[in-house]
Amino acid sequence: MIEHTAAERRVLSAVRDRARVEVDFDGEQRLRGAVLADALAGTKALRSVRITGARIDGRVDLAAARLDFPIEFRDCHFGDDVVLTEAQVASGPAARLPDSRSRSHAAPRDG
User: Fold this and answer.
1) Rounded to an integer, what distance in angstroms lies between the CA atom of residue 69 and that of residue 27?
2) CA-CA distance, 4 to 32, in Å (whole number)?
3) Sequence-separated (6 or more) residues with CB below 8 Å from residue 109
């Protein structure tokens, strides 16, 4: 079993509660890309996800994932790619992912 960091536990707890996920970090908090991708891809019925100021280590592989909620990363540092090949991401004002590290493009979804 993987031991999660305090930052990862905060994100996973919010995702489990199906609440709006708004997590502010100080830039020193680290999330592993694989943990974040697993949490997001396996989640339904979230209102939205906003993560601010996190350092995300490793690839965030969301290939072919269907994210039925808006997602935004604000002032986050990505150490590797965000893979969106054939992903479907809900469109909306908060559907923002880092351009410089994104690989391929997600198909926007309305609704």
Assistant:
1) 24
2) 9
3) 66, 68, 88, 89, 90, 91
